[in-house]
Amino acid sequence: MVEHRTENAGVPSSNLGLGTSAPHNPRAGWLVVAAAFLSMFTVFGVAYSFGAFFDPMAREFHVNRASTSAVFSITSFLWFALGSVTGLLADRLGPRRVLLVGMVVMAAGLGLTSLAPNIWIGYLAYGLGVGIGTACGYVPLVAAVGGWFDPRRRSLAIGIAVTGIGVGTLLVPPLAAAGITAWGWRRTYLVLAVGTVVLLSLAAAFARRPPHVAGADLRLGAAVRSRRFMVMYGGGILASFALFMAFVHLVPFAVQRGIAPVTAAALIGAIGIGSTASRTTLGWAAARLGVVRTYQASTALLGLSFAVWLAFPSYAGLVVFALLLGFGYGGWVALSPSVVAELFGARGLGGSVGFLYTSAAIGSLFGPPVAGLIVDRSGSYTVAIGAALVLGVLSAALLLPLPARRVESI
Questions:
Q1: How far is residue 48's CA from residue 247's CA, in Å, rounded to a whole number?
Q2: What is the CA radius of gyration of the chain?
Q3: 3-class DSSP state for residue 13?
Q4: For residues 290, 296, 301 and 304, what is the CA-based torsion angle, rounded to 10 degrees?
Q5: Mean pLDDT across the stretch 62-88?
Q6: H or E segment at 18?
């Protein structure tokens, strides 16, 4: 079953997009960019606010850091692992239907989490709800934006769209921390559930499938069998191990050092600032260095930023770390779809990018709990931070052989 043509009704063809049916009116493509921005603002704002809920949930459920970290790990594993599924579904059905399903599942998951009597229900309610919801609101919308624009504008358009991740990361965690202080963590999850319904409904209203419909010609198998794709995949595993250790443990680390919870949660917002700044400069950097080289540089910065956390654990040092991590992370995430399109072509981009993001599923599943286990056993974050630094640098080194231009024929 394929989504009805009315989703693109009244959009004539030109050479702006990828196929022979690309739109004359650029506003159609930019409305999809706006929808993607709002979708990613919402789903990642909710997901990355978990650090603010970490200590209150751990105290109420009487569990250690490793067990509490697993809530987020299950969530991130699902959104990355299911990205390959939601991307393929969006290629066939269009992004709107997939996004609406994600809206319902995420809101239900947040509501059920607010009622959870123990951590195990949290694993199911939060993990499934936010994990599936984020999978539906991320890859399908990134792929939709990529399909609306030709290579000259694709990096800019995707960069603007995924800036929603940075802005959501900037605003939602501190607001969630303030809500927890005022209402408690359970009521705050209910507020997030209502906000999810409102914002994702609006995003779905403007989400449209690309003018070029990939159909059955996804060419996914040929892409993932490529050595270069597997290089990106391995780099994704290592980088995400480090990245999500920071997203889960940075706030608890700061609180442990005597920083107030709302102030500590602002560190996640600083990651959002860095991420937003990165995404707004991507077009300039990619035009001069090339998409692949900018991607490699972003990954290197992501890994090296952990040296700042390790060497300067004061609040000022943590702010610098968060900004640098966010800048590298923003480029790594924003440019991944463009690099895939550059090296393997843009057809079936949802499926290809979704499969690539399963690498992050592996790293995010094991990174936070392993780091939590290290901290529980050693009583210190030093070893965990050092391990993240090593893995981040190895990720950047693994990506060095990638060519600067498309070489695959698939």
A1: 7
A2: 20
A3: strand
A4: -150
A5: 85
A6: none
